[in-house]
Amino acid sequence: NAGVMQNPRHLVRRRGQEARLRCSPVKGHSHVYWYRQLPEEGLKFMVYLQKENIIDESGMPKERFSAEFPKEGPSILRIQQVVRGDSAAYFCASSPRASTNTGELFFGEGSRLTVL
Amino acid sequence: GENVEQHPSTLSVQEGDSAVIKCTYSDSASNYFPWYKQELGKRPQLIIDIRSNVGEKKDQRIAVTLNKTAKHFSLHITETQPEDSAVYFCTMDSNYQLIWGAGTKLIIKP
């Protein structure tokens, strides 16, 4: 059973470029969450998606950031015109149910974005 | 908004001794409080969780206590071992998301 797969694991971009981070959830999971972790900090919620729907994007900046979870294929977190402050680890998690209080939230290994 | 305060930020204990990490929170509607362990460069891993209808839960060397009235919960690790060295995060659920503490770096001295 494959867990949550994220790629790339490491991504380097120059200021102004675009970053695309991919997340394939656990097979059978239709709920995907994206979190951002800055150095020495806890994770911060960004967005919650179900297949083809954004349920909660309250933690995602309104500009330059977007997320999708299409019917087929992985979930994608897209950051346009990256700035140095976007440098962070981006973690994806998936669950079989909508609620996060079931203990069934599984995290990927993260994508580490470095903006030069 | 909802917030979780975690202390201490760094904890250094002798191997074999106990470690205690404490968290307080502001959202009284939360009913689920998981703890995660994160090793350097790795993903967070769930180590234990507790629900609001329970005051204490134990799993081998790890225990968690919850005081809903006072809005605080704690992680206790007994007989610490070198492999316990990591960053530990307390979290609580709130509207489809987990709210995370800032983390405690646990160092086990040989």
Q: Topology, please?
A:
The complex is a heterodimer of chains A (116) and B (110).
Chain A: E1 5-7, E2 10-13, E3 19-24, E4 31-37, E5 43-50, E6 53-56, E7 65-68, E8 75-79, E9 88-95, E10 106-107, E11 111-115
Parallel strand pairs in A: 2-11
Antiparallel strand pairs in A: 1-3, 3-8, 4-5, 4-9, 5-6, 7-8, 9-10, 9-11
Chain B: E1 4-7, E2 10-14, E3 19-25, E4 32-38, E5 45-51, E6 56-59, E7 62-67, E8 72-77, E9 86-94, E10 97-100, E11 104-109
Parallel strand pairs in B: 2-11
Antiparallel strand pairs in B: 1-3, 3-8, 4-5, 4-9, 6-7, 7-8, 9-10, 9-11
Q: Determine Rg of chain A (CA atoms, Å).
A: 13 Å
Low-confidence stretches of chain A: none
Strand and helix order of chain B? EEEEEEEEEEE
C-alpha Rg of chain B, in Å? Answer: 13 Å
Strand proportion of chain B, as a percent range, falls in over 45%
* Main beta-sheet annotation of chain A: 7 strands, mixed
Provide the structure class of chain A: mainly beta
> How many helices of chain A in DSSP terms?
0
Mean pLDDT of chain B: 93
Describe this structure in words.
The complex is a heterodimer of chains A (116) and B (110). With 116 residues, chain A is mostly beta strands. Chain A is 0% helix and 48% strand. In chain A, a hairpin with a 5-residue loop joins strand 4 and strand 5 (43-50). By secondary structure, chain B is mainly β. Chain B has no helices and eleven strands. Chain B is 0% helix and 59% strand.
Give a short overview.
The complex is a heterodimer of chains A (116) and B (110). With 116 residues, chain A is an all-beta fold.
Write a concise keyword list for the protein shown above:
heterodimer; A: 116 residues; mainly beta; four-stranded antiparallel beta sheet; globular; B: 110 residues; six-stranded mixed beta sheet; five-stranded antiparallel beta sheet
